[in-house]
Task: structure prediction
Amino acid sequence: MKILIYLSALILLSFEGYSQSENSDVRQGNKQYKHGKFKDAEINYRKALEKSPQSVKGSFNLGNSLYKQDNFEEAANNYMSSINKINPDNKLQRSAAFHNLGNAMLKSEKYTEAIDAYKNALRLNPADNDTRYNLSYALNKLQQQQQQQKQNGNNKNDNKDNKDKQKQKSQSDNQKQQQSDNQDQQQKAQISKKDADRMLQALNNDEQKTLDKVNKQKVKAVPIQVEKDW
Result:
């Protein structure tokens, strides 16, 4: 919890001290920002950028107001915009913008991007202990994220192995069942053949009995004299 409060406090950086001249929209936005009216401040910073698209303060402070509204992605875009507008010789301004860019990335759980931003800030201002602290925090979060991803990957592989084993077992069971069914069919076929043989044998026996009976009757029968025609 202490870390989160600390990170939130760092975002209060602004460029108010960097320039004496400020247009009215930025000044109005700064007043609203200090009173916690971040949406109103955002509106005024956007107005300032409409009038002066190259305004460094407009882009940077708009990023701050968006960050305070948890719109970290758009905040990061405005920090990048301010970095591109800042004079390369002004290392402190660029360092501050990279620092806040790192905070926005950190809040979005884009730890690799946050680390890169903090490193850029430290290259420009090696004495910034706040950035060094945040860099250490981001490195730790990245390590935790990678470990979690690795664990999820292992669990996914385990689940796949279990599914493969279940599939193999199911296929084996199906094969066994099929073999059993084939054996049953073969047995039934054999039984049917035996039954057919018995039935045929029975029919043959009955036919033989009938023939024997007929032959016996022929033997006993008295010949009939055929009448002649005149």
Summary: The mean pLDDT is 78. The domain at 2-146 is CATH 1.25.40.10 (Serine Threonine Protein Phosphatase 5, Tetratricopeptide repeat). The two ends are 142 Å apart (CA to CA).
